[in-house]
């Protein structure tokens, strides 16, 4: 089997089967109703601390697209010709974009009930991003897919707007291919020119979420398929306790289709985050008869299930997430020097 066929089969196997977990999100993307992002080169801002207040004037900044890139924002605002036409891409002054940039936006504080925590979430910045909220440095995102979750409850403005600023660092050349991602053809390759700025920007979603004393982190449903008539599920998740006291709660779940319900008492220590595993050794309902299997394109239907998870503390929902997943099992074997990929066999 040649490398192109192997790559194609890997794409068929792995595309669309990743577990997706969703909270109730308050979008801070530029296509939402809450935020207008602006962008400007770091070298053009004399006193960065001034921008951390709501009195700061950004009229000479460029409107930014989030998620997106710095160069893409300039193109969309008509400040650079469309690089997809003629030889426009080769005429751009690369030095204008091959440097660090500030992103900035303002938004109103959400309503916060007693005991709720508000989280600022980033799904990705290229390549590094320093996050500032109302003048406080929250942390550094280092890597194209490095996520950030910051508790901003105590930093929220009580009487007006909040200022969110992100200093995005240019990746630099030569591109450090030992970092993630390990391959960036935007630095120029056979089929494409050098991309000004090397895709510097806030390249994935920015949003707020709210939780109670305990939050659910990265739930993951795995599946085994011993036969096409039977599947066995397991659920792995982490709980994060945001308080200085032990929290005793109940995890409730319901899987659809099938109306499969389960509950489990889970205790999380003060200030801790740790992993819990639920499987068929305790929950017989995790053994699914005649499951609607997920199949890659051309092999069958990509059937999907959903699982609603809720962690209850003192009878009140502390956090809730919805997961979409496919029941499938994949593997591989080498036969006479030929790689065979398997799905649901």
Most strands sheet = 6 strands, antiparallel
Task: List how many beta strands DSSP finds.
Answer: 21
The overall pLDDT average reads 90
Order of helices and strands: HEEEEHHEEEEEEEEEEEEEEEEE
Strands side by side in the biggest sheet: 4-3-5-10-7-8
Helical coverage, percent range: under 10%
| Structure annotation, total helices | 3
Describe the structure.
The protein has three helices and 21 strands. The protein is mainly beta. A six-stranded antiparallel sheet has the order 4-3-5-10-7-8, with helices on one face. Strands 1-19-18-14-15 form a five-stranded antiparallel sheet, with no helix packed on it. The longest helix has 12 residues. The chain is flat and about 65 Å long.
Please describe the structure with a list of short key phrases separated by commas or semicolons.
single chain; mainly beta; five-stranded antiparallel β-sheet; 3 helices
